[in-house]
Amino acid sequence: MIVYRGDPAGWKPPEGGSAVAVGVFDGVHLGHQRVLEALHRNDNGLTRVAMTFGTHPAAVLAPDRAPPRLSTLKRRFELLEASGIERIAVLDFDEAMRDMTPEEFVDRFLVEGLQTRFVAVGTGFRFGRDATGTTDTLAELAKSRGFRVEVAEIAHQGDQEIRSTSIRECVESGDVERAATMLGRPYELEGIVVPGDGRGRQLGVPTANVSFPAVLTVPLEGVYAVAVTIDEADHDGVANLGVRPTFDGTEQVLEVHVLHGETNLYGKQIRVGFVGRIRDERRFASVDELLTQIRTDIRGAARILNERTS
User: Fold this and answer.
1) Pairing of strands 87-92, 2-4
2) Which residues make Cβ contacts (< 8 Å) with residue 72, sequence separation at least 6?
3) Average pLDDT estimate for 47-72
């Protein structure tokens, strides 16, 4: 995978030109897939490129309102590649880019940087200083610069538009099932397994404590059936996300128990996909009562995960 970064004057554009999808693509959800699919329908042998942002524009334009992410940049790359993208151009949105006119943006990044012949964007796409560039602006500029434009309509799930904002709301409210229908896969937290207090192992239910990036959207605290990816292999699991009130915890922790498979995961990078919510986190009167509930949760997670694959 070729990744372009920095000054587009130093990029080596694809021979024969490129078909470019432009967007933040946070989460690469089904709405984004509609934009990406346009490249496959119209590339005419062109190299398929996704132009995305390393720094979310909102982090510069309105830092206090910048939303949490649905995926890390690394995961976004993986999802884009799985969607048939051959190269990725990563723009670091900063003050200089904010002040670019729409014409400057198109000329520097699309025309000179990538020798663009086709561009796909979503409805409502805005670009350039003060977001003055619209899809109509892009289409008008394309006429004099030798590329075509397709504007993909917003995808829907029932009567709801599929947008990153809607998915975040579902995740944060614990409705991970609905979030998955808009993402096209379970919502994921990915991170490193770090040492915990070992209490799960003492109870006979070893868990992996997952330290994930703070920029990611965090599901509502509770117990979930999860799909765990370890070394590219998938495993069933159950996860507790919360402060562990039975033990007077105060810091939020993501603990994952793999139902069948590895237990020594320290230092490994794992991905936790939230398949179904089982219950709220709550305080138990005793460790024995907690252990009884954990066993019930494990059976509930196994049932949810079996239903998913049957």
Assistant:
1) parallel
2) 190, 213, 215, 216
3) 81
